[in-house]
Write a structure and sequence with these properties.
The protein is mainly α. The protein has 9 helices and 5 strands. Helix 4 packs parallel to helix 6 and helix 6 packs antiparallel against helix 7. The radius of gyration is 26 Å and the shape is elongated.
Length: about 325
């Protein structure tokens, strides 16, 4: 009598894979945005460049500290803005490398609080100028003089509160995704595109809208005292960028989601930095004659005279 040998087959564990018809299992590889990939090196390079440009703007302002442009920057407001930009650029580095529990908890909150500080600083400066020029009694009240400090404190604080509640109640965590039939495992942050992330982004949009509204209201003021045009460009680019990338962030997984997040952070920071400070640095470095009290008085008087003439024609 002849005995037939029967071989039983078992599926490979989730962390292993095998080709069809093969009796062996091999460990799956891990897929995430590593530091050695070209796109990672590009993101890191643009991040370092952005931080270098921010520090360069800071140096230019410090070297021209006695000039009208620097004095109009608001002192504390300007320095808070610079800190916000530096932290916003550095948050891009958190999307590169193997996801960990700490990285997942810091990615969105670091950028959210940093950019909230940037937007709050711009909003505070605009409100401060509006209060100075539009005070009904000709002189700002004590509350109006301190309103910009309240905005600079409350703006980032509310974002911090949102982030703390998010991390405590529904924290994003590093997770492994096992695609069916694939030879790799996706490492990603689970929960970083949920309600908490939407609240962080929504609050930034609210601050950007308030900043844009105040900038539009300050358009009638002399150009030497307001940055309405630059703020408008920066906020519009911010809105367009986040509206375009948000669907990608919610639908993509793994590496592509990290790349999209890094790109939108860099675009937001670069556009705001350039719109707010590029022209002023150009004036200080290459047109110093326009950075004098005499020039500002003359240009302010000419602007006021043009407005009066226009009103007379109407």
């Amino acid at each position: 009598m002849r005995l037939l040998s029967v071989q039983a087959c078992w599926p490979c564990p989730l962390s292993e894979w095998s080709e069809r018809g093969n009796a062996s299992c091999w460990p799956k590889s891990y897929v995430y945005l590593t530091w050695l990939e070209p796109i990672s090196l590009l993101l890191a390079s643009w991040t370092v460049l952005g931080m270098a440009v921010t520090l360069s703007v800071l140096v230019v302002y410090l070297r021209h500290g006695d000039t009208p442009i620097v004095k109009a920057a608001g002192g504390l407001i300007f320095y808070c803005n610079m800190v916000g930009f530096l932290c916003a650029f550095s948050s891009t580095l958190l999307v590169i490398g193997e996801p960990t529990s700490l990285k997942c908890k810091l990615q969105k909150p670091v950028f959210g609080v940093s950019f909230a500080l940037c937007l709050s600083s711009v909003l505070a400066k605009t409100v401060r100028i509006l209060c100075s020029f539009e005070s009904p009694v000709g002189k700002p009240s004590e509350f109006q003089r301190r309103l910009y400090l309240i905005i600079m404190g409350v703006g980032p604080f509310l974002q911090c509160l949102i982030c703390v509640l998010w991390v405590r109640l529904d924290p994003p965590e590093a997770s492994r995704v096992y695609p069916a039939g694939e030879s790799h495992i996706l490492l990603e942050c689970h929960g970083d595109a949920g309600l908490g992330s939407s609240l962080v982004n929504g609050y930034l949009c609210f601050l950007a809208f308030c900043t844009l509204a105040c900038a539009m209201r300050s358009q009638a003021l002399p150009a030497n005292f307001n940055d309405a045009q630059g703020i408008a460009y920066a906020m519009m680019i911010f809105f367009v960028t986040w509206l375009a990338v948000t669907p990608v962030l919610h639908s993509s997984r793994g590496r592509m989601a990290n790349v999209a997040q890094g790109i939108v952070i860099l675009l937001s920071a670069y556009s705001s930095l350039a719109a707010l400070f590029l022209f002023k640095c150009y004036i200080m470095l290459f047109r110093p004659e326009r950075n004098t009290v005499e020039w500002i008085r003359k240009s302010t008087y000419d602007t006021h005279l043009c407005l009066v003439n226009e009103a007379g024609r109407v």
